[in-house]
Design a protein that fits this description.
With about 80 residues, the chain is an all-alpha fold. It has three helices and no strands. It has a domain of about 50 residues. It is about 65% helix and about 0% strand. It is flat, with a radius of gyration of 35 Å. The model has no long low-confidence stretch (mean pLDDT about 85).
């Protein structure tokens, strides 16, 4: 008898927790606060991006292209000769 009452109390507590959590999550106050925080984050990002320094490009002509073909240097290996 006590076991069933305890399970009933547990079920009621879990149901109340889910109900109040859902009620708060879908409330208008929570939606307003979350929208306000998102807009504040966007404003902070805009302010921070304006303060970032622009770095000078120093990578011009860094890459040197080599016009050399590797076709002549290919060695033909034989598996049985490699074992010897």
């Amino acid at each position: 008898m006590l076991k069933e009452i305890r399970y009933l109390i547990f079920l009621i507590l879990i149901a109340l927790f889910l109900f109040f959590t859902g009620k708060y999550y879908f409330s208008d106050d929570n939606k307003k606060n979350s929208f306000r925080s998102l807009s504040n984050i966007e404003k902070k990002i805009d302010i921070y991006s304006k303060k970032l320094p622009v770095l000078e490009n120093d990578t011009k002509d860094i890459i040197q292209y080599v016009e050399k073909s590797n076709k002549d240097k290919k060695k033909k290996f034989n598996f049985w000769k490699l074992l010897d």
